[in-house]
Specification:
By secondary structure, the chain is α+β, with helices and mostly antiparallel strands. The chain contains 4 helices and 24 strands. Strand 17 and strand 18 form a beta hairpin. Helix 3 runs antiparallel to helix 4. The protein is elongated, with a radius of gyration of 37 Å.
């Protein structure tokens, strides 16, 4: 969390171009950049938020495979059919298994006959040995011991054969393969061998294809599938609360939790695909294999699916409380001078001039490295980053909610898009920046930030224009 605050404060420094916490200064004719307190604290109308592309998928996906040692007799379903749990999907042909079973039973019967015959022979040998001479008794004894060994071997083989028979009879009794869940048949293929059924959250084999024999999707429950680029690893974690936001109407949101991130199966894409996870080097040209990044799927468990439809495309945002109202005004400690005795901030006055403004501090939040502001400052005020060059009476240039463009860039394939929206500016991890290709958009794991300088009504805009920077996570 402190790293997030530090990164945010670094952005403030870049805007202000200043450092320090003293009122001593030299004359400076340039205007001082001041930021909206509401923007800084998340109590205003806008902020910056990483968001990821997502899609509504089935809550559960059952992958049913066939036994490679069996022959399928009938397939009773087709793609698009709706099935209930327990419905028969296909049946195995038992004719070949019946022949194998008969052979096993004949083998078992042979062992039983061997045991019976050897036992009878032993009784005969014992009778003959009673009337034999002492020299012949040894020969009878050896013959009896040989028969007893044959019986033990036959008993062992009989046990194994009976086990095979029991297994074969159980297999023949289970010739109907049934649906493990209710849902829709999404595919029926000629492949798919292994475990006969498994239920999982709609994943694939890592190559982007489904290798099961029959795939069933439970359309009664939904999950959200998103992709994250390896360059953004660390910005999302399993168990993290997220907000699902409609792409058509950003006021419509749903709550969820990241259920899993599949780091074992990267999402494949065509080499001709512009969204294949390729990052850009300094000259703006596609990079080689050494700088190619991979994308990985992650899944969000929804608290409610009301209003969502299967296949709908959405945005996924870490939930930092940006959709809720903050009751306390918490200002990062970086902006506050002289916190131990007479705390104050550099604020813009009603006359659009810089002034030292005394404030009253409340509790300190160590996680946020921020103080609660009890008096002296409101979300509507504007403050500057502390600097040795600041002095009262200097002109100010305003940065507020309107300073960030409201348009959205494209977000594809695991990229994190920094967009202006409701809530607190968040930077989850330290970032490094590289020059972006002209006309580039947020793609493939990069975080796109767009900001346009503007002024409150009645002020003169400074350095109008749009600045974009493509950045990636520095691991």
């Amino acid at each position: 969390m402190k790293e997030s605050v530090a990164a945010l404060l670094l952005s403030a420094l870049m805007l202000a171009g200043l450092c320090g916490c003293s009122s001593r200064s030299k004359d400076n004719a340039e205007a001082v950049s001041v930021q909206s307190v509401g923007l800084i604290t998340g109590t205003g109308s806008a902020g910056l938020m990483n968001r990821y592309p997502g899609k509504i998928i089935s809550g559960d996906t059952a992958k049913v495979n066939k036994d490679a040692n069996k022959t399928i007799k009938d397939i009773l379903v087709e793609e698009g059919d709706n099935v209930k749990e327990g419905d028969v999907l296909f049946t195995y042909d038992t004719e070949e298994m019946e022949l194998d079973l008969e052979k096993l039973k004949l083998d078992l019967e042979g062992y039983e006959n061997t045991i019976s015959t050897d036992k009878s022979d032993i009784e005969d040998l014992k009778g003959q040995m009673n009337g034999a001479s002492s020299s012949d008794k040894l020969s009878y004894t050896l013959q009896i011991e040989g028969k007893e060994a044959d019986i033990q071997e036959a008993e062992y083989n009989k046990t194994l054969k009976q086990r095979d028979i029991d297994k074969m009879e159980a297999t023949m009794a289970d010739t109907d393969v049934k649906a493990p869940i209710a849902g829709r048949i999404m595919s029926v293929s000629d492949t798919g061998t292994g475990d006969e059924s498994q239920t999982q959250p709609g994943t694939t084999n890592g190559s982007g294809t489904d290798d099961s024999f029959i795939t069933i999707m439970d359309l009664g429950s939904y999950r959200v599938e998103g992709t994250i680029n390896e360059m953004n690893k660390g910005t999302l974690t399993e168990g993290m609360k997220v907000i699902i936001r409609s792409r058509l109407d950003e006021t419509k949101t749903w709550a969820g939790t990241i259920d899993s991130i599949d780091w074992e199966n990267p999402v494949s894409s065509s080499s001709n695909d512009k969204s294949s996870g390729m990052v850009m080097v300094n000259d703006g040209s596609p990079s080689d294999d050494m700088t190619t990044s991979s994308k990985y799927p992650f899944y969000v468990k929804l608290d409610s699916k009301d209003g969502l439809i299967f296949g709908q495309h959405v945005y996924i945002e870490p939930d930092y409380g940006q959709d809720g109202a903050q009751t306390a005004l918490k200002l990062p400690a970086y902006y506050i001078c002289d916190t131990d005795s007479s705390p104050y901030v550099w604020a813009a006055s009603e006359k659009k001039k810089l002034e030292k403004r005394s404030i009253t501090l409340g509790t300190y939040d160590a996680n946020l490295d921020a103080y609660e502001i009890l008096s002296g400052l409101t979300p509507e005020d504007y403050i500057a980053a502390p600097a040795d060059t600041l002095k009262e009476g200097m002109a100010v240039t305003y940065y507020d909610a309107n300073s960030f463009s409201s348009g959205e860039t494209s977000v594809e394939n695991g990229s994190a898009e920094n967009v202006s929206g409701q809530g607190k500016a968040q930077v989850s991890q330290p970032f490094y920046s590289e020059p972006a290709a002209e006309g580039s958009s947020a793609e493939n794991g990069s975080a796109q930030t767009s900001a346009t300088k503007s002024e409150p009504q009645g002020t003169q805009p400074s350095n109008e224009g749009t600045k974009s920077a493509e950045v990636g996570y520095a691991s």
